[in-house]
């Protein structure tokens, strides 16, 4: 655009331009007048006059040109020359704004306006009033940016320290709505070592990065709880939480200072209470220490809401339990190893055994009870196996054989019948062992304190003979009948301690009713005497 530089061309362009812009400035709004008032003296009128909105420009260009223009609306020739030189890239050959580039021109003018409005106003005391209304004491660079040491004060905000590129950088002190930070800044952000104090008493002292706690530091909360350790982007990841009562936690954390991951909670004597894995601020799988017993471990396993719940290992003065627990009570499947060498394997309910195997001593695991329990004692149906080799299967009550049951002796003898307080008591059958695993003699009758006592039927296997009558202490005692293998009576009378005393007529012999069915001899040792309750139902 060299043609725009001669005097005649400039004059012609100036005249044409004044005529065209007369209409443009006639309806300049209050915003333009306000801009003029705030504009420093060294800014040209041309720069101001062309700062109008897109809508206003379109509205003005659609109106008719007005020929009569007052002098104060016209642009000085020298201002116009300066305008042409500064904005020639946006003008056509006639010196008018190129319609194609009008959007770019307006953006350029708006950017200049922003810069104009940023220019601080210097006060009499040497301080500057910024466009925001804040007061600044210090040096400004050529772009009116704050630089070096200075003070900045605004409503609810104060800063004193070092500036660089218009932002706090270096050491300084900031007060923002009673929140005080004193330390290192970088590009206007807390960065480096510093101390941040809140009006409620909360204080953080340590390292910052990008306005967040980052690195090593300590936060003292308004409730007095302390959080110290390694921070990352405002979160304490690994550190120590110290509580009012002197207890403290050390280990991994996540947002909101929740204990999460591996960590240990100590009491005020620095003795551990919970050690292990945490989740959402609660122990998940931990060792729990007894603070009343030299801090020995009394539990190691799963937890829920600080309660011993789940699968774990619980330690007691008399032994160790491994299995399921519910709020520190044995519940579900689990094993208890007792200090005396005994062991229980089975199921629990409300801290008591319900069904399982109790080994009396692991040194002799063949000696055990396997069956039902009630209120912590052996009761119900079960099986005993004794060190002697004897085996009992049947009813149990209060840890004893009681009710209907079968006892197999180690020598092959067997009792099937009623028990009372560990004794054969009532109706039953006793099978004597013989060679070839066949039963020998059989007694079917009444028992007392484990002896044949009362009425009974005794079958002699070898001879086939049979005694039917009364007994006392395993001996014939009272009225009885002795038969041969064919059923013929050998003797009928009264005995005392196995000795025959006198004859009695068979017609005068009185035996219990239905004795033949009740005390019949079962020939097959594999058969067992029926439970009297079952007999009653038949």
UniProtKB/TrEMBL annotation:
Coiled coil: none
Pfam families: MORN
UniProtKB keywords: Repeat
SMART domains xrefs: MORN (SM00698)
Keyword Repeat in annotation: yes
Classification via PANTHER family: RADIAL SPOKE HEAD 1 HOMOLOG
Protein name as catalogued: MORN repeat protein
């Amino acid at each position: 655009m060299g043609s725009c530089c001669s005097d005649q061309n400039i004059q012609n362009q100036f005249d044409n331009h004044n005529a065209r812009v007369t209409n443009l400035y006639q309806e300049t709004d209050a915003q333009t007048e306000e801009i003029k008032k705030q504009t420093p003296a060294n800014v040209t009128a041309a720069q101001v006059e062309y700062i109008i909105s897109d809508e206003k420009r379109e509205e003005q260009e659609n109106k008719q040109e007005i020929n009569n223009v007052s002098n104060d609306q016209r642009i000085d020739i020298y201002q116009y020359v300066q305008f042409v030189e500064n904005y020639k890239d946006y003008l056509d050959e006639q010196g008018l704004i190129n319609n194609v580039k009008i959007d770019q021109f307006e953006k350029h003018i708006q950017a200049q306006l922003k810069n104009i409005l940023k220019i601080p106003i210097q006060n009499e005391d040497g301080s500057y009033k910024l466009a925001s209304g804040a007061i600044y004491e210090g040096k400004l660079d050529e772009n009116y940016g704050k630089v070096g040491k200075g003070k900045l004060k605004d409503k609810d905000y104060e800063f004193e320290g070092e500036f660089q590129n218009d932002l706090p950088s270096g050491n300084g002190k900031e007060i923002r709505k009673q929140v005080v930070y004193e330390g290192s800044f970088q590009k206007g952000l807390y960065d480096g070592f510093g101390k941040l104090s809140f009006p409620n008493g909360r204080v953080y002292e340590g390292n910052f990065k990008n306005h967040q706690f980052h690195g090593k530091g300590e936060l003292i909360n308004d409730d007095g709880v302390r959080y110290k350790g390694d921070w990352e982007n405002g979160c304490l990841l690994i550190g120590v939480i110290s509580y009012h009562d002197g207890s403290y936690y050390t280990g991994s954390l996540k947002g909101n200072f929740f204990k999460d991951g591996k960590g240990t909670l100590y009491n005020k004597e620095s003795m551990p209470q919970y050690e292990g894995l945490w989740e959402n601020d609660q122990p998940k799988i931990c060792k729990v220490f007894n603070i009343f017993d030299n801090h020995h471990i009394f539990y190691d396993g799963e937890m829920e809401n600080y309660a011993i719940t789940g699968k774990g290992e619980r330690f007691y003065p008399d032994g160790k339990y491994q299995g399921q627990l519910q709020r520190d009570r044995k519940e579900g499947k689990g094993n208890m190893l007792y200090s005396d060498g005994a062991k229980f394997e089975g199921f629990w309910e409300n801290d008591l055994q319900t069904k399982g195997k109790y080994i009396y001593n692991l040194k002799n695991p063949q000696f055990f009870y396997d069956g039902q329990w009630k209120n912590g004692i052996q009761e119900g149906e079960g099986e005993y196996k004794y060190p002697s080799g004897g085996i009992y299967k049947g009813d149990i009550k209060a840890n004893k054989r009681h009710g209907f049951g079968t006892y197999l002796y180690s020598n092959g003898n067997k009792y099937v019948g009623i028990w009372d307080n560990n004794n054969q008591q009532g109706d039953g059958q006793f099978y004597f062992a013989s060679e070839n695993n066949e039963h020998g003699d059989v007694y079917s009758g009444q028992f007392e304190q484990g002896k044949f006592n009362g009425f009974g039927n005794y079958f002699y296997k070898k001879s086939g003979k049979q005694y039917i009558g009364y007994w006392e202490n395993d001996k014939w005692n009272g009225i009885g009948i002795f038969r041969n293998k064919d059923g013929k009576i050998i003797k009928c009378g009264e005995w005392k301690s196995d000795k025959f005393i006198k004859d009695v007529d068979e017609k005068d012999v009185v035996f219990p009713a239905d004795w033949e069915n009740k005390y019949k001899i079962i020939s097959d040792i594999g058969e067992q005497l029926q439970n009297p309750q079952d007999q009653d139902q038949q």
